[in-house]
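Support request, please re-run this one:
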Amino acid sequence: MFDTIHTLAEGVSCIHDDSAQIHTNIVHLQSNIMDQQKQIIRLKQSIEESSQMFQIAQTNSRILQTEMEAMKQTMTESSSSSSNDGSYMWKITNFTENRANAISDRQTMEQRRKATEAQASGRTDDGKESK
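Re-run finished. Output below.
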């Protein structure tokens, strides 16, 4: 009978040791699960930030594309007003009137206003600081 009690005591001791090991493993697994959940949260945040940055980049790309198209259009319009020999032509509005004013040394009201403002601010007619 003593042998039976001893065998049972050893069995109980083994079961207790196994139970403690299982408990330790469970605690370790729970810790790993919590770490994984935190990592998942960080990854979701990173994905969201990346998505926002991608959307911003797409918006900027569309803006740049629009600006490039406008520049191309401007360049096309500019190149159509120049000749093949490298000279540049531009349109002067009211040329005849401006020429007549220049010949007769007359100034328009707008030209007088600009000259008066320039003198008052200490600049010359061409926008440079006077000495």
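The chain has a mean pLDDT of 83. Residues 21 and 83 are 91 Å apart (CA to CA).
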